[in-house]
Amino acid sequence: MKRQQIVAGNWKMNKDYEEGRDLTKGIVDAMQPSDTLVILGTPYIHLMNVSRIIKDISNVHLAAQNCHQEESGAYTGEVSAPMLKSCGVGYVILGHSERRAYFHEDDELIAKKVDAVLANGMQPIYCCGEPLEVREDGKQNELVAEQVKTALFHLSKEDFSKIVIAYEPVWAIGTGKTASPEQAQEMHAHIRKLVREQYDDATADGLSILYGGSVKPGNAKELFSQEDVDGGLIGGASLKAKDFVAIVNSF
Ligand code: PEP
Predict the structure, then answer these.
(1) Atom of ligand 1 nearest to the CA of 212
(2) Closest C-alpha among 251, 135, 230 to residue 185
């Protein structure tokens, strides 16, 4: 079964309004037609404008980097799933390790956000991954299994089929240290096996699992050539159009 190949950018808290417009135009202008799904994960302020710039390009989609679990209400400073949907957002990155570390998000909360995103017709990009000390203890498979089960395994098969998973070892994010292609493959195969056991072959074989953690033009090709690596979630290298497009072209 051919799975959807995806390269998603996570701009994090970078780029003012004009810089975001220029980056989006730079990416769109440099892209060649391809079957790879390209997702731009921008701060909220860019969503409407990026949505307008990419509207006629069928393989380029828009992601938010978070959303609140409630539909509306007295949650000053927050943004809900229906609001994102109204801006043309198709995907929402949830459970990024920076949100877990700095905003104390755990998998019980992330499960509610997953439900809110699905209920509003968008697709979660669910991030999981172990910190360095867990890898050093050799307990990464157990931890990632726990994350995936708590955040996602309450879903029906139909809802689960809309999920994208990003495996992002915390020790590789923004550090310049990349997991080896073998380490990435091993964890992706582990995640796919968990999904096969919980759901079925078609669900497991259809799930796109992205690798994230210091992916660059120089290492993307080898990572993406692994059997269970279906693309990448790209932080730092998504901030330069040339690098991001080079990563998209690595397939
Ligand atoms: C990320 O933030 O999801 C990420 C993978 O960052 P970087 O590519 O900079 O390591």
Answers:
(1) 5
(2) 230
Give pLDDT tens digits for 182-225. Answer: 999 999 999 999 999 999 999 999 999 999 999 999 999 999 99
Out of 11, 173, 229, 240, give the residue to mutate to test ligand 1, the one with the largest number of ligand atoms within 8 Å of its CB: 173
Q: Which domain holds residue 238?
A: 6-248
Domain with residue 110: its CATH number is: 3.20.20.70
- Please tell me the distance from the alpha carbon of residue 75 to that of residue 80, in angstroms, as a whole number: 10
Å from CA of 13 to ligand 1 middle: 12
Is the Cβ–Cβ distance between 165 and 211 less than 8 Å?
Answer: no
Tell me if 131 is assigned to some domain.
Answer: yes
Does ligand 1 come within 6 angstroms of the Cβ of 94? no
Whether 168 sits among the annotated catalytic residues: the reply is yes
pTM for the structure as a whole: 0.97
